[in-house]
Design a protein that fits this description.
CATH class of the largest domain: Alpha Beta
Distance between the termini: 6 Å
Strand content: 25-35%
Largest sheet: 4 strands, mixed
Number of strands: 12
CATH topology of the largest domain: Histidine-containing Protein, Chain: A
Order of helices and strands: HEEHEEHEEHEEHEEHEE
Shape: flat
Mean pLDDT: 90
Helix content: 25-40%
Radius of gyration: 19 Å
CATH architecture of the largest domain: 2-Layer Sandwich
Amino acid sequence: MPDDITLQAMVMDELAWEPSVDAAHIGVSVKNGVVTLSGFVDNYAAKAAAEQAVGRVRGVKAIAEEIEVRLPHHQQRADDEIAERAVRILGWDIEVPAGRIHITVAHGEVTLTGEVDHYFQRHAAENAVRRLSGVRSVINLLTVSHRAGAAPQSRMIRQKIEEALRRSANIDASGIEIGVDGGTITLKGHVRSWSERGAVRHAAWAAPGVHEVRDQLAIQS
């Protein structure tokens, strides 16, 4: 594993490599594998992209994200305009269930509440809204609740997740333990990187019947 000085250089190189991020105003500090990002960007999508870029770097154990969104004057929007555009863009998105997501906006901060059937819908709603101009942050409070059909048995859920982990070229499933309690999944063990940790969470959320994933995975040093 790289030491902190090497890891800092690697993170800075990755941020500079990411075309959707202007890294000129982003500061990077590293302590014991924990990366702290500071500074500012000019839109919320760039803030999210910076965090995703850092997560791809080998050796990153955790990310403390303290980047501020400073909107240029031409991108600033009134809250009611942001809310109206958010409603419209979610209505156009085929992955988002119609009429089940409530939106509130305060000082450019968008809060999503309501209920969806699948995790990918929760993720899609946030992705759609965070690209809107004028948005400074997104708080995603959407809950996942599978309504249709009988709930799958715990053994079936575990089997589906294990199969998904084995299929993935980006995951070493040998150090991962999966606990199932109804629709709640608990992930334990170790992974090799921050991005692998995210891939494991994604696989767990994709299983039928899952409404909560508790991530207790550690990044192996």
